Amino acid sequence: QLKLEDYKDRLKKGEALNQDQLEAVEKYDEVVHNLEFAKELQKTFSGLSQDLLKAQRKAQRRESLLKLEAEKKKLRTILQVQYVLQNFTQEHVQKDFKGGVNGAIYLPSKELDYLIKFAKLTCPERNENL
């Protein structure tokens, strides 16, 4: 653009320009228009790029939150199962299931023993003093 402006100034001062230089001066307005259009395109692409980055970050945050919620749900389920299994290690609960009383279903001793063994394997003992 600077070169074209120089040609234009030289032409105004009455200097002789060669054919290529004259053609370049004739296309000056077109070149300026194309440069402005290119600048606008660059701004548009830059804005779109920023919008895309924001959308990607937002999607990543949303995905992280969904993963965290899924992990919390798994942990809640594990803790609930552990709580139920730990109850099978208590004498009064075992008696209720052996007799099918107090809202408990009847469980044969063999099945109850399996549940008790499984509870001892999967549920860590708690220190009540902590």
From TrEMBL:
<feature type="coiled-coil region">
    <location>
        <begin position="4"/>
        <end position="58"/>
    </location>
</feature>
<feature type="domain" description="Caprin-1 dimerization">
    <location>
        <begin position="61"/>
        <end position="129"/>
    </location>
</feature>
<dbReference type="GO" id="GO:0090263">
    <property type="term" value="P:positive regulation of canonical Wnt signaling pathway"/>
</dbReference>
<comment type="similarity">
    <text>Belongs to the caprin family.</text>
</comment>
<dbReference type="GO" id="GO:0005102">
    <property type="term" value="F:signaling receptor binding"/>
</dbReference>
<dbReference type="InterPro" id="IPR028816">
    <property type="entry name" value="Caprin"/>
</dbReference>
<dbReference type="GO" id="GO:0005737">
    <property type="term" value="C:cytoplasm"/>
</dbReference>
<dbReference type="Pfam" id="PF18293">
    <property type="entry name" value="Caprin-1_dimer"/>
</dbReference>
<keyword id="KW-0175">Coiled coil</keyword>
<protein>
    <submittedName>
        <fullName>CAPR2 protein</fullName>
    </submittedName>
</protein>
<dbReference type="InterPro" id="IPR041637">
    <property type="entry name" value="Caprin-1_dimer"/>
</dbReference>
